[in-house]
Structure formats: structure tokens, C-alpha cells
Amino acid sequence: MNIGIKDPTAINEEEQQTPTFEAKATWGSALRFMVVMAVLLGLVYPLATTTVGGWLFPEQSQGSLVRDADGRVIGSSLVSQTFVSDEYFIGRPSAAGNDAGGVSGSNLAPSNEALRERAQADAQAIAQREGVSVDQIPVDLITASGSGVDPHILLPAAELQVARVAQAREIDEASVTELIDQALENTGWLGSPVVNVLRLNVSLDERFPVATTTSSVIPVE
Amino acid sequence: MNDMIAIYAVVALLSVPLGIYIAFALSTQTNRLDTLFGVIEKPIYRLAGVNSQHAMTWQVYALAILKLHVGLILLAWLVFMCQGLLPLNPDGIPGMPWDTALHTAVSFATNTNQQHYSGQAQLSHLSQTFAIVTLQFLTPATGLAVLVAIARTLLVAKPAKVLNGVGNYYHDLTRTVVRVMLPLAAVVALLLTWQGVPASYQAAHQVEMLDPQVEEVQTIPLGPVASMVAIKQLGTNGGGWYGPNSSVPLENPTPLANVIETASLTLIPVALLIAIALISGRRRLMMGIGAVMIAFSLISTSVVVYSERMPNAALIELSQPGANLEGKELRFGTDLSALWGSWTTQTSNGSVNAMHDSFNPMGGMMLLMDMFVNVTFGGVGVGLIGFFLYLMLAAFVGSLMVGRSPELFGKPLETREMRWISLAILAQPLVILGLSALTVAMPNAAANSNPGFHGLSQVLYEFTSAFANNGSGFEGLGDDTTWWNIACVVALLIGRFLPMLVPLAVAGWLAAKRTAPAGRGTLPMDSPAFMGLTAGVIVIVNLLGFLPALVLGPIAESVVQGF
């Protein structure tokens, strides 16, 4: 494959020895080139892909919002929420208070004493709330996610909470387990199954509404 | 496991046709692509007032790069500081302070994307697109352009005709952007939108949380996120829309999105091995380079995957035994977080889908070592350019070992070349260790958030990431201070332009020299033995430079913890 660039000066031997180059690196062409590229790449490209994407995928492009029966936005299936009441499943600890406006991980190193202190407090609160010993708690419930808005927990972490939620809502455990199955995501060939906590809690409220909520422990965070 | 197979398969299957396409797209022989893309390219040349057919000497080529980048840095700096007064700012975000804005502008203009701010809260939609997305296209395209210029000048065994220049920067840059980057990014952006990455110019939603006992209001920031994430991943950029990058579900929502984004990390760097093999005709050489890169990559990835499957030392006996999930997302788990972490540091990308600060010490150390080496695939274009730099050093060492005067592809390597090659290689430990030492020596300058050995690792990681033009971080670091912003700007600029332009200069200098015919004593550069020597040179140079610092940081942390 010939990749030689067209070179007007390389016509014969004599000219080769005294090359004269027409191409100069002027400020004018650099700045004009910059403006043209900034308009193409910084305005036209995002506008084009965002418009086409919004038209093809109206739900996903607007943040995968979850709405209630009246159409009011109550969250996003991609953003976790804070739950403290016994009537709800509780997600992972969050270094961001479950606010996507302030997304953040804990950034605590394994060697940092502060990480152990936080995890200890979380583990004790969970053990008290679910009535289990600390060594029965799945590790995802005491580790903060990278984003601070991880919307998921693993299946064992959901199963741990079934008895408490069923009792608080005065329903049988089987109907809660059934809703967990419906809130499972990533059950296909890719990924491993996870439970979407917000979707699970929304479906609980729809199927088994409660008038008031209670909380047995002082919320951590 | 399925995800990992899918990611490796996508890269393996797509990089070959993409490499062939890149070689074809950047060829200056007239071909059918010219008619198709000429519709966009010709107006660009006309509006910019450049003649893309005129060759540049390496000096003019380098000068054109520097002038364009000075303009880009000033433009981005201005946009960040004035964003409060400019349009496309639905959330009413005010202008950035001058030092954060300068650091951000330089960081994106050097293909680093180190972020001392949180995008969703501190940048308007205009800053995120007009300033940042523009740089996310132009900087990898510049790396690719310089690589092709070097390949034309240095590698082509028998040039069809004698070249007086290395190519035309605007020609190479425009073709890379229009023919390679834009079509790829548009496809990836739409795939990601389908998976749930926002594509919108709407303002953020304010939502009351479902639990009536929780009073906090939640913000759900939106924007033209998908268009940015696509080029962020493809162009070894790494700077995301949201602060914690692709760990945020809005930026990386599903396992399929994660497969697409992870594969995009390495796709172009791997494809360039094939493209350069075709452009230069040196297939055995590029196969050898590829073998070294794949070996380095597999070692690094295995170590990080193993490390993150181990429990987090802080959480022992506080739960059921499990892998280190602190700072990781459950839809990925530890393996896919470790794979992303090792690939993002190998390719100089720097996007993350988990928090590196909370990795186990051995995993964190491997990420640091990936960035020291920085040529395991490396950034778009600059990865191979960096490898050529080591290749030149290995040719020098190897020639002396067999008792020949040093030469590279039949051209003599003399004092001027070796002086600059040594400087480009030694600048890395000098800048990283020098600035780290200065920072920890000054009271309060370090602003590290973790105590002890890991605190030193945080400082070391930040400067390593800046010099390697990576952009990831041990993000607990309180790095939005004037000291960090200015010190990182120094590391960013030296780390970008010295290792990129020195090989271009060497290629230009060598092209002007007479070729010595290959004889029996010539060092066969495409032999496995020489590739082994090059790999050895890379490992030895980096261990000599950084082992003491690693002992004080992650190794000490690991020993204290017992694994």
C-alpha cells in the first residue's frame, strides 16, 4: 500500500536537494481550523446523535424515569434512593446520600480505619433491623458503591429482608418473594442477576399500600 | 465470565477490519472513500484555509500541532470560566475558578481528562460538548496523525518516492476525525442511548424520594451524555459526564453497555497495530510489538482480577466472606471492574467503572505499573509512539551488545538522537517523583484523604496519571487546589508533548540520513529475540525508576495487611 503523500517538491533530484515547502503552520489556519472543528465536533455531532437517540429511544434518552399512576416522576430506575422504613427494601450504603447530583464513591482505602468504622456501624444496624448475626449479612449491604447511586442489591441481600418487610406490611412472605422475582434484572446471557430496589419498592407500594411507615432503627448516614 | 468472553471477542473480531479500514482511510491514494467523505472534508479545508496536499517537514508538522493546541487550550479555558454567561446551561451552573478551568483545559487538550471537578454539577452542557467533546475528538486524532507520520517516515521499508516531509497535519487529523472517529462514535452513542445513557438537553429532575420518612430531595442530572461517553471511551480520553465516570448507572447502565464501553477502551489502540503493519509493510515487527503488548496486558489483568476477588481487609468478619465490593457496582461485580481498571490504565484512557482508591493494594499497584509502562496498547497513536521510543533505546542497547554502531532500520542512531530519546524516557520518573516529593514535603499541599502508605500512593497516582495522560485517580484526593491544578498542568504538558514529538523529530532526522545496507551483523529488529530485549528494557527502566516509590506506597500497604 502506498501511503506517500503527494509532494509537489519531490519531482526530480535537483528540487529534492533544495526543498521548498508550501505548507506552513500559520496561526491563521490553526485558529480557523479550530473553529470549524469545534462547530462540527462540539455542536453538530452532539446535537445530531442526541436528536436521533432521543427520537429512537424516548424513554432511555430522558434518564429512564419511573412515574407513578398520575405520571409524576418519582425517580429513575438507574438511580438508587434512600430507604429507612421497615416497609421498604433497603439498598447499599451510599457516599453520596443517593443523590445523582452529588455522585461519589467513598474512596476509602482498605487500610483506612474510617472504612472499618463505617462498615461496623452499618453491619450492626442491619443485624438489629433484620434480626440476624453480623456474619449472615451479604457483603454488598455493607460496601458503598462506586457511584453512590447503585440501584441494585444481590439476591441474598434481598432475601435477608423479606421477613421484615412482610411483617411490617402484614402480608405473607411468598407474595414479597414473588415481587423480588419481578424486580430481577440482568437475567440474560450477560451479567449476573441483581434486584432493582426502587422498582421492587414501587411494586410493593402498588400491590400492598400502607398508610404509615415505621422505622425500627436510627438511620445510618 | 460471559461478559469477559464477549468483551475479548468484540475487540478481537472488530480490531482487524477496523485496522484495515484505518490504513485505507488514511492512505493518500485516491479511493472511493474520498468521494463519500469529501463532502465533509473539502468544506473543512476550504473554511480553514489549508491545502491538505502540501507536505510538511517534521518541524512544521510539530509547529502546526503546538499552535492548534495553544488555541484549543485558550478556547476551552475561556468557555469554562465564562460558562455562566453562555447558552446551553439549563441548570444555571456558574463559571469555573481560573485554576480549575486551566487544569481542565490542559487536561483535555493533552488527551488526559484528569478531572478536579464533578462534571454533572460544575460544567454546563456547552462546556461538556463545545469545549470537551471537541478536544475528545481532536486529541486522539492528533496522536494517530503523528503515529502515521512517524510510520511513513521511519518505518516504510521502501518508500515509493522520496519524501521531503512527514505528511500534512491537517490532512491526517481531518481524515482521522471524519473517516474513523465520527462514524464510530455516532454508532456507539446510539447503542448507549438504547441501553439507557441519557441523550437530552433537558435540565436536571428534582425528585422527592419514595420513602415518606426520607426528607432529602434527589437530583437526576441529564444532558447529551451518550455522545460524550462514546468518544470518551473510543478516543482513550476517559473524562466522563458524571464525577465517578462509568460507575454511574446513568453513564454505564447495563452489562451490555459495559461490554460496549470496555471493548471501546482498547478497540482503536489494538486496530492501530494492524493499520501500521499495513501502512509500513513491516508485519513481523508489528506482530512482535503486539505480542509484547498482549503479554503485558494479560499479566496485568490477571493480577488485578485476582486481587479484587480477595476480601477487603477493612471488612473482615463484618459480613459473610466476599470479594472486595467497596467502590464497585453490583451489575459489574469485581471481575469486570478489574478488567476495566487494568485496561483503562494500559490504554491511557482513564475512565473508570469502579473506584480505584478502594481497590486492594496489589490491584492498585498494578494500575500504577500499567501507567508507568503506558505502552501496553497505550493511548490512541501515542501508545505505539511510546513503544517506538523504547524500541529506539533497545536498538541502541542491542547494537552495542553485539558490537555494532547503533542503528535503527539501517539509519545510524547518533548522539543527537540518543540525547533526546534518553531525555524523553527519563523525564517520566523525574517529573512524577520530583513533583510527588515536592508535594508531600509541603505541609497541607498533598490533601490526601487516606492515612499512611495509601496517602503516598494517592499523591504518586495523581502525578503518574497526569504524566501518563491517563486521567484516572485515587479520587479521595482533595485535588481541586491551586497547587494541584498548577503542578498537574506541568506534568500533563511534559507528559504529552515530549514523548510524542521526540520520536517524530528522530524520524525526521533519520530520514535525512543515508541508509546503510543490511549486512550479516545487522540487528534483526523483527526477531523474537529483539522483542524480548525491548520488553526487558521496558521492565528494567520502569523498575529502576519506580520500585522505591512502590515499596513506600502499595507494597508497604500490602505487607501490613498480610496479602
TrEMBL record, chain A:
Pfam families on file: KdpC
Primary localization class, coarse: membrane
Subcellular location(s) of the protein: Cell membrane
InterPro entries named among the record's database cross-references: KdpC
Membrane topology label: Single-pass membrane protein
Entry keyword Iron-sulfur: no
Source organism, top-level taxon: Bacteria
Subunit structure of this chain's protein: The system is composed of three essential subunits: KdpA, KdpB and KdpC.
Biological role: Part of the high-affinity ATP-driven potassium transport (or Kdp) system, which catalyzes the hydrolysis of ATP coupled with the electrogenic transport of potassium into the cytoplasm. This subunit acts as a catalytic chaperone that increases the ATP-binding affinity of the ATP-hydrolyzing subunit KdpB by the formation of a transient KdpB/KdpC/ATP ternary complex.
Protein family (similarity comment): Belongs to the KdpC family.
Name of this chain's protein: Potassium-transporting ATPase KdpC subunit
Organism: Vreelandella lutescens
Taxonomic lineage from the root: Bacteria, Pseudomonadati, Pseudomonadota, Gammaproteobacteria, Oceanospirillales
UniProtKB/TrEMBL annotation, chain B:
Keyword field contains Transmembrane helix: yes
Broad class of where this protein is predominantly found: membrane
Bilayer topology term: Multi-pass membrane protein
Regions that span the bilayer: 6-26, 60-80, 130-155, 176-194, 256-278, 285-306, 371-400, 420-442, 483-512, 533-556
InterPro entries, per database record: KdpA (IPR004623)
Pfam family, one: KdpA
Cellular compartment(s): Cell membrane
Keywords, ordered alphabetically: Cell membrane, Ion transport, Membrane, Potassium, Potassium transport, Transmembrane, Transmembrane helix, Transport
Function statement: Part of the high-affinity ATP-driven potassium transport (or Kdp) system, which catalyzes the hydrolysis of ATP coupled with the electrogenic transport of potassium into the cytoplasm. This subunit binds the extracellular potassium ions and delivers the ions to the membrane domain of KdpB through an intramembrane tunnel.
PANTHER family: POTASSIUM-TRANSPORTING ATPASE A CHAIN, POTASSIUM-TRANSPORTING ATPASE POTASSIUM-BINDING SUBUNIT
Subunit structure: The system is composed of three essential subunits: KdpA, KdpB and KdpC.
Family affiliation: Belongs to the KdpA family.
Protein name as it appears in the record: Potassium-transporting ATPase potassium-binding subunit
